[in-house]
Amino acid sequence: MALSEGPMEHKTIAALLTCFNRKEKTLASLEALFNQEMPPATEVGVYLVDDGSTDGTSEAVQQSYPQVKIISGDGSLYWGGGMRLAFETAMQADPDYYLWLNDDTILDPHALKTLLETSHRLTAETEKAVLVAASTRDPQTGQLTYGGMIRRRWWRPLNLDPLMPTNDPQPCLTICGNCVLIPREIVQKIGNLDPAFVHYAGDWDYGLRANKEGFGVWIAPGYLGTCSANPKPAQKTEAQLQRELQKIEQPKGLTLEDGTLQPMQEWKVLAQRHSGPFWPFFWLIPYRRVLWISLMGRLKGKNA
Length: 304
Prior knowledge:
alpha/beta; Spore Coat Polysaccharide Biosynthesis Protein SpsA, Chain A; single chain; globular; 2 domains; 10 helices
């Protein structure tokens, strides 16, 4: 599918980022953003939430990019809260588009231009507003790290798999929030990220809600930047899991070798909202192993 090469009218974009003690990564991400090959008559305003960094991030950003609007947090926001605060602040300007951007994502020079052209073309073809995500690759291996998510098995509604990018845009069920372009029409209908999600799952929930509301959810063609995947820990023994069970209720959850167990209450909201009438079953499936270990631990404690 060839992207439109016709003239585009004046557009304003609010780029939303949140950071905490990753000064060098944040500066590198902003550098790539400000070096984008922009379409004519396109303005980008940047809203950066610094959630209590102690490594001089705000000062460094202010010195290098004084045009960035820096919003201070108290260290308790995490990804969801930081992005929500940036979103809320940017909404006051009512831009044409909002760009979610992780501060560890380095955009290719043509990324934003491709996102805008893809959005413009798909909106014209489908006659509805579309949310467009960028696919990112690992900077070392070139392998897919983040982008669109699809459901390959209808009986596992929250067991989602990444969608491999091709030379054409592709529809998907939802998205990872590393780099996503959202038009004003979708934000006017759906609003901000849900405060029910502190660190994870708010991006999945937003894409799923956009789909339910009848908007398009797509990934742009090809890879548009780099972002390393979160490191996976070594396999844990049952004794190790027993000691770490309390991490499930922390904002970043419990990281395992095959994924992350998110806080149970947050995953419950996602399951209730997007898993249909059998949501309690789909809610508890990811926790079956740790729930069993917890139960055995309690029984051993009673019998000791």
